[in-house]
Amino acid sequence: MNTKNPNIAIKAENITKVFGDFTAVNQISFEVKKGEIFGFLGANGAGKTTTMRMFCGLSVPSSGTATVAGFDVYKETEKIKKSIGYMSQKFSLYGNLTVKENLDFFGGIYGISRRELKTKSVELLQKLNLEEEKNKLVSELPLGWKQKLAFSVAIFHQPQIVFLDEPTGGVDPVTRRQFWNMIYDASDQGITVFVTTHYMDEAEYCDRVSIMVDGKIAALDTPANLKKQFSSKNMDDVFYELARGAKRSAD
């Protein structure tokens, strides 16, 4: 099922995910534009990763409709997987393989030809300043290098959309900023970036942000508009105000 609007990368309508008696994602609806950096913010347990897994074809929604890269999340999951890149918060490379072996392995999975893979690998190693470390096991690299390499591999095949699940968790502020520069570069190449994070300051780096509270979208807009709406100077205050409002409604 192809989306009618070619400028929309992701479209969700009342998407819900239920585990037994627990509703992890509760009837959320939104669109992500092509080439956009879309932040999916919220505290741990807010439903961010569950939503992302549904969009990646790794989990079937309980109800609602959604398309990713124009493909239906129920019927066309294999087409979705070929159109996206994915980087999990738990790191998505093989630590017992070298840097080069990881590039060769994932290049093969993505269907990159040997000639193109050789060229792209050289370019990537140069860009990340990892030429001298190409024969090192990935497990031996510092965390920041691992994260940047994992992101580079996630977009190795130039996907339409890349999903990043808490990509900067545990890294220092300087590395976080370097990582976001890589995200900007990917967006400039036309790749749509869907990123989950619980770091509220990272909302400032996104074109638009959706803030999840208890499985629901509590707010969705540009960072500037959200701060204006809540008369706030930073996204932390916006989030806490939304969380307090959700708690009062529940009570």
UniProtKB/TrEMBL annotation:
MF terms in GO: ATP binding
Keywords, in A-Z order = ATP-binding, Nucleotide-binding
Keyword ATP-binding among UniProt keywords: yes
Membrane keyword on record: no
* PROSITE patterns per the UniProt record, alphabetical: ABC_TRANSPORTER_2 (PS50893)
Q: Outline the extent of the ABC transporter domain.
A: 10-239
Q: Which superkingdom does the taxonomy of this entry point to?
A: Bacteria
For this protein, the record's PANTHER family field holds:
ABC TRANSPORTER G FAMILY MEMBER 20 ISOFORM X1, ATP-BINDING CASSETTE, SUB-FAMILY H, MEMBER 1
Name this polypeptide is given:
ABC transporter ATP-binding protein
